[in-house]
Amino acid sequence: MEKNISIVIPSYNTAATIGKCLDAAFSSDYKNFEVIVVDDCSEDNSVEIIKGFPCKLIRLETRSGTSRARNLGAWKSSGDIIFFTDADCLLQKDTLSIINRMSIATGPDVVIGGTYTKIPYDKKFFSIFQSVFVNYSETRKVESPDYIAAHAMIIDARTFRKSGGFPEDFLPIIEDVEFSHRLRRAGYGFVVNPEIQVQHIFDFSFLRSVCNAFRKTAYWCMYSMKNGDLLADSGTASIEFKANGGLFFLGLFLFVLWIVIQEQAFLYPLPVIFLFSAFMGRKILKAFFEARGALFAVPAFAYYIMFYPFPVGLGAISGMLNFLVKKQLK
Predict the structure, then answer these.
(1) How far is it, in rounded angstroms, from Cα 287 to Cα 284?
(2) What's the gap between Cα 50 and its chain centre?
(3) How many CB atoms lie within 10 A of CB 215?
(4) Of residues 299, 306, 297, 256, the one with CA closest to residue 277
(5) What are phi and psi of 316, to 5 degrees?
(6) Which of 40, 113, 246, 327 is the least crowded, having the fewest Cβ atoms under 10 Å away?
């Protein structure tokens, strides 16, 4: 049985990627699907590119945000299943076929998640790092994920319409986390199938990697503090990653003390801290190695435990301060 699948894609100034995204979707080996692209008042030529494909184009009259675009696309869809993805994500040829089989097996009360391919479309170092990191984080707990990411979210159409959709007046980036948590409270189950994959176009430089880490963490902490689950084991904000971050800042603190006080004893714990951090991150080290071999795994892991926690930590501090200030102003 081939269910009708509605692919919903929000778009805002996506001229650099939307053509590749739609070309990949229409190259699927699955035939019973529709593609709905919701343009959120783009200022580039992405609409002209979208019009070159046999998809349903919906244009918002005012800039309304990603959640509004996703919701409107889903409400205007006609499929049995809604598959949310992004304009910089490329479906694999078998993605929709796997979605169909999985949705039949799980039923309408389970929301299904996919993930990124380990190797992204662009083969830059920081892009591969991010793609492996997300793939690893989203597939650690396939039977009990904390949330389903909107770059590969599969939900029964009736379930979505009963849910109320994504929050439209909310923090950016993590609307899918709030939506997932609301669905869980309503009694729906979650499962991730690592075979459901989309290939992301990151185009990450060092600066973009750092800025992404800071921005996502800031919003995540604002939401987590409000939600009371700052220490939860949740996707990329996993317990092991938080432990790596804590160890990084402990080592940094001791190193700064050594510089200021010039007391050699502050350096003695650093090798132990480094080894413990490496032990905590051993599984993602394996993921880096399996994705691209030792020549990639070594610098990627060094970046992961010796620098990446810094922008993440700054983002966490920014998010916490932002939350506390807003709470005081209320």
Answers:
(1) 5
(2) 24
(3) 16
(4) 306
(5) -65, -45
(6) 327
Backbone angles phi, psi at 32, to 5 degrees: -90, 75
Residue 268 CB-density burial (10 A; 0-12 exposed, 13-18 middle, 19+ buried): exposed
pTM (predicted TM-score): 0.94
Q: In whole angstroms, what is the distance from residue 235 CA to residue 247 CA?
A: 19
* 8 Å CB contact between 123 and 201: no
- Residue reference for tokens 């990697």: 209
Q: What are 323's two structure tokens?
A: 């939350």
SS3 253: helix
Distance CA 74, CA 305 (A): 40
CA gap 282, 287 in Å, rounded: 9
DSSP string, 112-181: EEEEE-SS-SS--HHHHHHHHHHHHHHTTTTTS-S---GGGEEEEHHHHHHHT-S-SSS-SS-HHHHHHH
- Do residues 44 and 13 make contact, with C-beta atoms less than 8 angstroms apart? yes
Q: pLDDT tens digits, residue range 179-224?
A: 999 999 999 999 999 999 999 999 999 999 999 999 999 999 999 9
pLDDT digits (tens, 9 = 90+) for 84-115: 999 999 999 999 999 999 999 999 999 999 99
**Can you list the domains of the chain with their CATH numbers?**
5-203 (3.90.550.10), 239-329 (no CATH)
Beta strand pairing status for 189-200 and 110-116? parallel
Which residue is it, tokens 């922008």?
311
Identify the CA nearest to 27 among candidates 92, 100, 115, 119. Answer: 92
List, for residues 243-299, the tens digit of each pLDDT value.
999 999 999 999 999 999 989 999 999 999 999 999 999 999 999 999 999 999 999
